[in-house]
Amino acid sequence: MGNEDQLRRREDPNSLPREEMSGGEEEDYAFIRETYKRRPVSPRQVFYIVLGIMAGGCLFGLVAGTVFNRVTGIHTAKTPSTVTIPADEVRENISPTMPADIAEGTADGKGGEDASGQGTNPAAGSEEGEPDTVIIYVTPTPEPELTEEEKLAAVLDNYSEIHAAFGQVAEAAMKFMVQVTGYKAEEDWFNTTYLDSRTVSGVIIADNSVDLLILAEYRALEGTDRIAATFTDGTTVEAALQKADPTTGFAMIRVPLEDIPAETMEVIEPAVLGNSFTVQPGDLTLVVGRPNGQTGAFNFGNVTSTGGLVPLEDATYNLISTNMYGSSVGSGVLIDTKGRVVGILSASLSAGDPAVLDAVPISLVKSLIERLSNNASLPRTGIFGTDISAATAELYGLPAGVYVTALSEESPAFEAGIRVADIITMVDGKALYSMQAYHERLMEAEPGTTMEVTVERSGSDGMVEYTYTVTVGELA
Description:
- The structure is a single chain.
- By secondary structure, this protein is α+β, with helices and mostly antiparallel strands.
- Among the domains are: 2-29, no CATH class; 176-265, Beta Barrel (Thrombin, subunit H); 276-373, Thrombin, subunit H, CATH 2.40.10.10; 379-474, Roll (Pdz3 Domain).
- Helix content is 23%, strand content 32%.
- It has 10 helices and 22 strands.
- The strands form 5 sheets. A 6-stranded antiparallel beta barrel has the order 3-4-5-8-7-6. A 6-stranded antiparallel β-barrel has the order 9-10-11-14-13-12.
């Protein structure tokens, strides 16, 4: 039985008494008492788990933020930057063909007249022993005589080259031109709804890091349900009206930069605003946009006048008139031969024949464009006036300044006490000589602030001076 017990014990180790399991036998069956434990989590696994949770949270936040911005239209990532458009200075008494240093005399030693009235020769030797200038005359080689046919061909070639050069300038200008279309749902006599559209040319002014800002005429946008902007490459995107000026009829629209394809951004650019104070009759200019009512058209010609005046509330604009013909509903910009914008076409402010293209000088509306670009309030006082020049004042014995021709009813100027036929001579203690200067001073003010306006009024004892405090209002 001893062998059977030993065999049974080997087959069933649990039957062994605990006290007998010692020494070598315990070592032989130690694997039976092994227990399985869960592998401990390593720090690397903890890091990857936390990283996954954070990545999922970021992805969820990004998707939620994008959907929220698309739904609400609120740009929370960027704040529009301020657009600044420096004003132009008028340079007077400087000949357009003579450098200023020569026109001012001989103080720089470059020639002129001596005390006896005789002309001095800068080429002659000076008393300090400077050597005389040696002039070498070279006889030009005579050019071959051309036939009449060759002369005509040369003239036509030059004319063709001029046309080609103007075409290149106009093509470059198309980069900052935009076709702005306003859409409005209308109903005909049979109650059938149709979509009415009006299109004008706009000009890219700037981008404020959030929106692209485009100046256009308000007549195509008033009362519309939606606005679209079409760029030079044919891309069309939704736009919105930012602010309009009812006095001039100009408006600023905005297009979110994120809605403009990258390919389009590469072929468009803001316009360079020139100095219209330097524009003179006879200058060569171009008009681009929709001067004849068709998109992408251009023409070139000469400036015929810069003296046409359009009186408006708190401003008087002179117009740049040209010999270029267009449409009564034409729109666009006037540019010089270097491609700089010097005027904005305006059908509502055209002084004469609506088919003859007139432009508002860009220098006179730069302060207005800056306010429209920054969505700032537009100040007003309600004065219509005309200039009294120094010559007119001396001829009629009147003070120089601005003659008040009319006042808007219930306007700030009327409420303050200013009356028709008053002559404004000072604003805030500074002399005033033109309606343009009055407009510039007003555009520096903010609605709600005050201006001290000094006027002279005819009375029984002659001209009497009064000073009124005008609280600047806001254009609706």
